Amino acid sequence: MFNSLSRKNSEFKIDSDNRIVYVRFFGETFSSDVVKITKNILDNRKLIEDFNWVCDLSKSKQLFGLNQVESMAKIFVTNSDIFHNIKMAFIISSPKQLMSVDSLNNFFNTNGINITIKKVIDKKQAYNWILNDKV
Known about the structure:
41% of the residues lie in helices and 33% in strands.
C-alpha cells in the first residue's frame, strides 16, 4: 500500500509492504526543500519508524553547497530514535550529488547516527540492496 504527498519539486511515498520511504526530488532543489519534505515525512513518525529510505536525486539540480548538507542532516540527529539501523539508498546522476551523499555519510559517521548509505544508479538497484542485503 502506498501513501503519498506531492510538492512542487519533491514527493514521497510510504511503501508499507516493503517498509521503505521513497523520496524523489526533481528540478531545482534548495536545502530548504530537503528540510521541508523530510519534516513532512517525519510527521508520519509512527508510520515510518525503522523504515529504510530511497532518496532519488537523479532528476534534481541541487542548488545548495556541501556546507549546507550538515545543517540539513541535523534533522536526523534530533529524530535519531526513528533512524536506528536503517539503510538509505541514494539514486544519483552527477558528481555534485555524489559529493553531497558522501558529506551526509561522513556527518552520520561523525555523529554516531546508525544509518548505512549506498549510492546507486536506479530504483531497482536501490530496492534490491535494501530488500536483499543485510545491514
